[in-house]
Known about the structure:
Elements: E1 17-23, E2 38-39, H1 43-49, E3 53-57, E4 63-74, E5 77-79, H2 98-117, H3 120-153, E6 157-162, E7 165-170, H4 171-217, H5 220-225, H6 230-269, H7 271-287, H8 289-318, H9 320-326, H10 330-379, H11 384-429, E8 445-454, E9 460-470, E10 474-478, H12 485-492, E11 500-505, E12 508-509, H13 515-521, E13 522-525, E14 534-535, H14 536-541, H15 549-558, H16 562-567, E15 575-576, H17 585-598, E16 603-607, H18 615-628, E17 633-637, H19 641-644, E18 649-654, E19 657-662, H20 664-670, H21 672-686
The structure holds adenosine-5'-triphosphate.
The site of adenosine-5'-triphosphate has 17 residues, from strand 3 and helix 12.
Amino acid sequence: MRPRYRAWPASASSRATDGPVAPIxxxxxxxxxxxxxxxxxxxxxxxxxxxxFRPRTSGSGHxxxxxxxxxxxxxxxxxxxxxxxxxxxxxxxxRPSPLDVxxxxxxxxxxxxxxxxxxxxxxxxxxALSLVAGVVESTLIALIAIIAASLASGTEGVQAELGPLALxxxxxxxxxxxxxxxLGRAGVNAMLAYVPARLGSQAMADLRRELFDAFVGAAWTVxxxxxxxxxxxxxxMHISTVSQAVITLGHGVSAGVTFLTLVxxxxxxxxxxxxxxxxxxxxxxxALRPLARRLREYARDFSAENIEYSQGVDEAVLIAEEVQxxxxxxxxxxxxxGLIDKVRLxxxxxxxxxxxxxxxxxxxxxxxxxxALIAVSLVEASQFTTLGAVVLILVRALTYGQQVxxxxxxxxxxxxxxxxxxxAIERYVSHPQQDGDTDLPPIRELGAVSVDFSYPxxxxxxxxxxxxxxxxxxxxxxxxxxxxxxxxxxxxxxxRDATGxxxxxxxxxxxxxxxxxxxxxxxxxxxxxxxIWGTVADNIRFYRPDLTDADIEAAARAANIHDDVMxxxxxxxxxxxxxxxxxxxxxxxxxxxxxxxAGTPEILILDEATSALxxxxxxxxxxxLEGLKGKITLFIVSHRLSALSFCDRVLVVDxxxxxxxxxxxxxxxxxxxxxxxxEITQNQQGA
Length: 687
Ligand SMILES: Nc1ncnc2c1ncn2[C@@H]1O[C@H](COP(=O)(O)OP(=O)(O)OP(=O)(O)O)[C@@H](O)[C@H]1O
């Protein structure tokens, strides 16, 4: 029996399912699996581990698996494949040694420190400002305490021993100094509020640029394997969280320095009280660390579930039209609600612990403060004025101590987001697009010699493909579904490199040539080209500012879309985009053809660009291609005889091998696939 293939709806991954097919994309990780007969992790991972599955991608972009025998998938995994390595149930996990912990902490810091590198100067500025704020505040607090004591005792002036300093001021002068200090503190406070805000917004913009550049510069293989919604979630939620982390760190530096300054002031004023305060804070900080560790675990779950959720949201937008037409089925609804619920619990736990830890710190700290004061009053009952100042400074210092604790808690909450962002940037940066360093000459001849290709986790998709195409030829690419046509196109576009053999340009290895020049000279129209939100002119120009309005119009004429554009009230200024009904599918295809032609390419590749069009739209595109024939080299992937018979020669690919490369007329006589295609077409036309 021939194995069957079927596209898999994303929502299906969350419910029990039977059948000989399984998705390898858009599936969910199953935490906490223990059953040795199931593979924990994504189905993609399962496919890599399990010889029963072979992956492929359909023309519609779905990634499918072929199973040799019926199997069952449910939300916990994939039944029937052995776990590659089953950990021994008796082996107790080794407790990490303090050295391990230190090493891990250092490694984690080294990964995360780049996020803060650019902020270092401003963090130093914050530290300096906080030092000033701390000194001003402790002086002000001590002065208030002393003035209050003087007023209570009815003395004219203000006299006190402030550690090594002896204070002797008239009351008015003391009031004036206090007002100046209070205003100064307000000024420093404003700066302390501004610097972290600036830090955060700067970090957000820098990180967005860095992630975008890393993504754009990454090899296509990495981007093609990225699950939907991941990049969006990284760009939005993760970067926002990391920028908040930078702000939080700024507040932490500020609170920490102010705390230390106040503690030092307390040391100067009253040593025993200060010692007790320091010990109290350190003990508290250490006692609350386990809770903070738990918080970090919850935050990690929160980050992971958020990615899943973003993926679901992304998909909800993609299939909005179908859902509108078919209605949201209870199963789809249930799957989406499942995503919402999966985020809810980690969000609840994370928020609860994030609020609980600082609150606990404050409550316990106040209790310990009372105990500390009792101890101090017993030791130094005679120095009531300085004792009053110390009490106020201690209370204030505890507020900053609590802020430091909440900063630590908040950082725990955010670190998993930072780790994930660092992972993604590393993933993109470590797989850059390869580039050549030779200038690309005019392309006289493009060919392949013994080209093989295998996807990383899959079988060989192309085998020993050899052909050569002269400049100006129109070449069709035909073959059954899954035979490797789109993969061959990706190699011609240099999106993927052949795993064996060579793509040749004028007899030289294509990898030697600069990619930028390749991109300028080799254009592409995919099956479902995307319009960007903007005018028709923007869409044709597509971020190439050197293209003039005349170039845009010429390309639109060549693509047979000019007349349509001119019939719209705003002409080339008509706003189009993914969700604008202003253009039909055929017009969209021709706008994208114009986009491809606007850069005056030497090679144009169309991957089933007319397969979704009606006969009239297809005829208009063919008319456009007719005008290009002989001027540029054309590669046209198509299942339609109308498109293929227009070509000079057709490459017939079957099961990854080149079956024939000949003129349409000869293929009709000699090639079974082409002949069959012709018969089907004739039957359809006759029907
Ligand atoms: N990203 C991928 N990872 C693993 N295998 C893949 C991937 N993309 C495609 N394949 C496999 O490569 C084979 C060829 O796929 P390709 O999309 O090139 O075929 P095609 O001839 O263009 O098919 P169609 O006419 O249906 O679009 C398929 O069997 C598919 O399973």
